[in-house]
Amino acid sequence: MKKKRADELLYEHGHCESRQDAALLIMAGKVRSGKDALVMKPSQEFPADTVLTVDSGNEFVSRGARKLKDALEKFAPDLAGKTAADIGASTGGFTDLMLSHGAEKVYAVDVGRGLLHWKLRSDPRVICLEGVNARTLSPAEIPEPVDILSMDVSFISATKILCAADSVMKPGATAFILVKPQFEAPKHDVPPGGVITDPAVRQAALDKVCTFVKENLQWTLRDVSDSPLKGPKGNLEYVAVFIKNG
Fold this sequence. Notes:
By secondary structure, the protein is an alpha/beta fold. It has two domains: 3-54, Roll (Structural Genomics Hypothetical 15.5 Kd Protein In mrcA-pckA Intergenic Region, Chain A); 65-244, Vaccinia Virus protein VP39 (Rossmann fold). The protein has helices spanning 6-12, 19-27, 65-75, 93-100, 118-121, 162-166, 181-184, 199-216; strands at residues 3-5, 31-33, 37-38, 45-47, 52-54, 83-87, 105-110, 126-130, 146-151, 169-179, 219-226, 238-244. The strands form three sheets. Strands 8-7-6-9-10-12-11 form a seven-stranded mixed sheet. It is globular, with a radius of gyration of 19 Å. It starts with a strand and ends with a strand. The model has no long low-confidence stretch (mean pLDDT 90).
């Protein structure tokens, strides 16, 4: 039997308005083949008669929103009238979460293109800044200082982006920084496969980010907690909450 791409099947079965939207649903981890088999990528091929299903129980466009949810509800539960920035937005889980808490506007920043979920692309409260390298982010891209900033980046140390993030935050703003030890630790401390199991290495990676903030930014550390959701390979990550002094 002829095989078809997952995004093609999803579109043909009427689950979304375009193949691009289908690809976004797949990348958000919301599409399954059969009862439990998660579809991993838009180009994954299946027999033409395969029935794909879309998870309807997810509250947000991406499971990544769960990483920030508890910390946001503790330190910034009401974002009514607030402007936010989501650095490393990807499909937009954090953006979606902040909108659900009343954010008036969210700048969704990502170096990639075509990743932000169609629901957010069509939301007038969302400013999609795709193809933007966050290392050089400045008020030129985000002209109004933000009240809330979230950051979830991969394959780069958070310390490479924090100063740029600071430049678009207003005094008193709250920053939620996801610290990923696998991208902060020295290469010799990251085992093959990229999963860090040594608590000392994880702690050193967290300390690296917090020390950088202390030495380079006028921010105060409010809280550090384990992310309730591990990384794709099972890495333990941290949510660090800072307040910009002003």
